UniProtKB/TrEMBL annotation:
<keyword id="KW-1133">Transmembrane helix</keyword>
<dbReference type="GO" id="GO:0005737">
    <property type="term" value="C:cytoplasm"/>
</dbReference>
<dbReference type="GO" id="GO:0016020">
    <property type="term" value="C:membrane"/>
</dbReference>
<comment type="similarity">
    <text>Belongs to the peroxisomal membrane protein PXMP2/4 family.</text>
</comment>
<dbReference type="InterPro" id="IPR007248">
    <property type="entry name" value="Mpv17_PMP22"/>
</dbReference>
<keyword id="KW-0472">Membrane</keyword>
<feature type="transmembrane region" description="Helical">
    <location>
        <begin position="246"/>
        <end position="265"/>
    </location>
</feature>
<feature type="transmembrane region" description="Helical">
    <location>
        <begin position="139"/>
        <end position="155"/>
    </location>
</feature>
<protein>
    <submittedName>
        <fullName>Uncharacterized protein</fullName>
    </submittedName>
</protein>
<dbReference type="Pfam" id="PF04117">
    <property type="entry name" value="Mpv17_PMP22"/>
</dbReference>
<feature type="transmembrane region" description="Helical">
    <location>
        <begin position="175"/>
        <end position="196"/>
    </location>
</feature>
<feature type="transmembrane region" description="Helical">
    <location>
        <begin position="216"/>
        <end position="234"/>
    </location>
</feature>
<keyword id="KW-0812">Transmembrane</keyword>
Length: 267
């Protein structure tokens, strides 16, 4: 009678420990690493209970560690990236990039700038004020003609100069973007947009003096985090697409800045 009671108690503990392990396995399957010390502790407790039972039942009840569930965060990240890359839309996008890379990236940038400018106007306009369609066309044209092709050339240039994907190389790419590409493209964006609005050379220079510095400060606060994700985890063909996705929020801000009133030129 005593042995039967002990056996039932031991089985309950076995069932309870397996429930705990399944929870660990579920956590591990979504990228949370399981520490070896937790596994060792549960194994010791398991052996302490099962050592009281001899024979075949002990073998059947033995606590097993599902090794396949112990996966690292890095492995999960690779699996997630592979699943995203293998999705239908992304596969179509990659196939189109192979044949018409600049065109596809330019269209993507144009769509992002169009959506961002409309969002920016919605946030700042009065309730009965109509949308400025000409302004939206300027933004869409900039994305199509200038930003899309330059993003293609820039990301390919960085991938050739810095082919590795380690952390140090990623920071070098971020530095290059903040020190070279960012300021140049910001100046080009403000200058072209101002010229299309009819501003003269002195007014464009005054606008750059007024708006460039605060915009670049906000640029440094926003883009390094985004670029770390892009350069560290995203394949080169998809980098312009992911960059344009991050650009949506940023473009809402810069389209607002680019369409401020004229700056007063110093005589």
């Amino acid at each position: 009678m005593m042995n039967s009671s002990v056996f039932r108690n031991g089985y309950k503990v076995h069932h309870y420990m397996n429930t705990i392990w399944r929870r660990h396995s579920i956590s591990g399957s979504v990228g949370v690493p399981i520490h070896k010390i937790h596994v060792q502790q549960e194994l010791q407790v398991s052996k302490a209970f099962y050592s009281r039972f001899n024979g075949r039942r002990t073998k059947e009840m033995e606590f097993h560690v599902p090794v396949h569930s112990i996966i690292s965060t890095k492995t999960y990240s690779t699996t997630l990236l592979a699943s995203i890359t293998n999705s239908g839309v992304v596969r179509w996008y990659l196939e189109m990039i192979k044949t018409r890379p600049i065109l596809i990236k330019s269209v993507t940038a144009s769509l992002v700038y169009t959506a961002a400018d409309l969002t920016s106007q919605t946030m700042t306009r009065q309730s009965l004020e109509p949308y400025d369609v000409i302004r939206t066309c300027r933004m869409a044209g900039y994305g199509m003609i200038i930003l899309g092709p330059t993003l293609h050339l820039w990301f390919n240039f960085l991938s050739r100069v810095f082919p590795k994907k380690d952390v140090f190389t990623t920071f070098k790419k971020i530095f290059m973007g903040q020190a070279v590409y960012g300021p140049i493209m910001m100046a080009v964006f403000f200058s072209i947009n101002a010229a299309l609005q009819g501003e003269k050379g002195t007014e464009i220079v005054a606008r750059l003096k007024r708006d460039m510095l605060p915009t670049m400060i906000n640029n440094v606060m926003y883009w390094p985090m985004c670029e770390f994700i892009i350069f560290r985890f995203v394949p080169v063909p998809l980098q312009p697409l992911v960059s344009n996705s991050f650009s949506y929020v940023w473009t809402i801000y810069i389209t607002y800045m680019a369409n401020l009133t004229k700056a007063v030129a110093n005589s």
